[in-house]
Design brief:
Blueprint lengths: L3 H12 L21 E5 L2 E4 L4 E4 L14 H13 L8 H13 L5 E5 L2 H16 L3 E5 L17 H4 L10 H4 L2 E4 L4 H11 L3 E6 L15 H12 L2 E5 L11 H6 L5 E5 L9 E5 L1 H4 L18 H43 L4 E5 L2 E5 L10 H5 L3 H13 L2 E2 L8 E2 L6 H18 L1
Parallel strand pairs: 3-13, 5-6, 5-7, 7-8, 8-9
Antiparallel strand pairs: 1-2, 2-3, 4-10, 9-10, 11-12, 12-14
Length: 431
């Protein structure tokens, strides 16, 4: 069989920077050339050379129901026949907004966007307008999209390729963002003691999932809520990855900590480009045209994305959220198998999880990774070898140690068995 993947990559490199449209797709951190995927079905993806992969990347999170879910396909087919975009109000955007407000505890009103980056950018603008302050606090290793104020010490592709924080970003903009280590409430308190009257908002992933999966330590989110309340700043949860992934109400429903604003994406579009931000009514009423804080998007509330999002949320909510029981059960089994076999092979490895989000760090198993510095200190070179061994066994992991693995409801016990067998064979390759 000819290597069509190589030919496509050569063509891509001539017309796309690095041969990709997003750095996270590149294989620079793990070696080799990325496969060019042409189709997906359930838990599998297929490339141009007709190789099949068990997908643990899930389009970086949105494919929580697996690829080509029949209910989502039917909704998209019906919607497509009616038109793709109108630039006018559409009933589907109202229906999806109603579902988001129903499920997410802190959201009384929502504004649709076309990406998670756009959602976080608009949420910060709103926070600055609502407080009359300029400074933003973010956490090292958290990734909130690629807008200028939020790229400092960012995770995801910025961390994967060890890119400079401020290249192309004026110093005056960078100076408006203050950074502290994740899971360090004392550092946050010290920052507020110095700049409290200037801080508009604290933004974070409630579970950091762009430096690998790093859950919040006990009391960390509560401490952030308290310090924001004390100083009149807003607390923004970036739930682009955790929203509707860990629970129908996002991680805020799991933790019981209520943010002022929530940013969403990924799952709420069912695999199509989408984002959203929402919060209390009095805050969201400041968004134009109800208020003076401008936000706009030609394709915001796109009918196709709204249809896929409605279908996805309704499916996840069905049968009292049975989908989450299934996902968590599979994650428990995968976690246990990985930990057991790494230990038996004498490979120092730690599995970290937030329900069905997980990451393997190659470090001492009894040494929790709690922040970005600790994540960067793990053996990423060994991860690259492990990634290639798993790919050779037909399992597609995110090509970076600073990203989460994603299970879907299309993964079942048989597919999980296939993953475990592939993992065992990968360890043999590494021995």
């Amino acid at each position: 069989m000819t290597n069509k993947n190589h030919a496509w990559f050569e063509r891509a490199c001539r017309v796309l920077p690095g041969g990709v449209n997003s750095p996270v797709r590149a294989f620079g951190a793990v070696g080799g050339e990325p496969p060019f995927v042409v189709s997906g079905a359930g838990p599998y993806m297929y490339d141009v050379d007709e190789n099949r992969y068990i997908d643990l990347m899930g389009s970086w999170g949105p494919q929580i129901l697996g690829h080509a879910h029949p209910d989502i396909e039917r909704r998209l087919e019906r919607t497509l026949k009616l038109g793709t975009s109108f630039g006018a109000c559409n009933p589907l955007e109202v229906e999806l907004a109603e579902l988001v407000c129903k499920f997410v505890p802190s959201v009384e009103m929502v504004r649709m966007t076309s990406s998670g980056t756009e959602a976080t950018m608009a949420a910060i603008r709103l926070a600055r307008a609502a407080t009359g302050r300029a400074l933003i606090v973010k956490f090292e290793g958290c990734f909130h999209g690629h807008s200028d104020p939020l790229l400092q010490s960012a995770g995801s592709g910025v961390a994967t390729f060890n890119l400079p924080d401020a290249l192309g970003i004026p110093g005056a903009i960078s100076a408006l963002t203050k950074q502290v280590p994740f899971n360090d409430p004392e550092a946050v308190r010290e920052l507020f003691a110095e700049h409290g009257e200037e801080i508009a908002a604290v933004i974070l992933e409630p579970v950091a999932a762009n430096m690998g999966v790093v859950p919040p330590n006990e009391g960390f989110l509560e401490a952030l809520r308290s310090v924001c309340d004390e100083h009149g700043a807003l607390l923004i949860f970036d739930e682009v990855l955790t929203g509707f992934r860990v629970d129908l109400g996002g991680y805020q429903a799991v933790s019981g900590v209520t943010p002022d604003l929530t940013c969403m994406g990924k799952v709420i579009g069912g695999g199509l480009p989408v984002g959203a931000f929402g919060g209390r009514r009095e805050l969201m009423q400041q968004i134009a045209p109800a208020g003076g804080v401008y936000h706009a998007g030609t394709l915001s509330g796109n009918p196709l994305a709204m249809a896929a999002g409605i279908g996805t949320l309704e499916t996840l909510a069905a049968n009292n959220g049975a989908a989450y029981t299934h996902l968590n059960r599979l994650a428990d089994k995968l976690d246990a198998h990985l930990a057991k076999t790494f230990a038996e092979a004498g490979i120092p490895a730690r599995v970290q999880r937030a329900r069905s989000l997980l990451t393997v760090y190659f470090t001492e198993p009894d040494k929790p990774v709690t922040n970005f510095a600790e994540a960067k200190a793990t053996d990423t070179a060994f991860f690259a070898r492990y990634f290639q061994a798993m790919l050779a066994e037909g399992v597609y992991l995110p090509p970076s140690n600073f990203e989460a693995w994603f299970l879907s409801t299309a993964h079942d016990d048989e597919v999980l068995h296939q993953i475990c067998v592939a993992h065992d064979r990968a360890l043999e390759r590494l021995s």
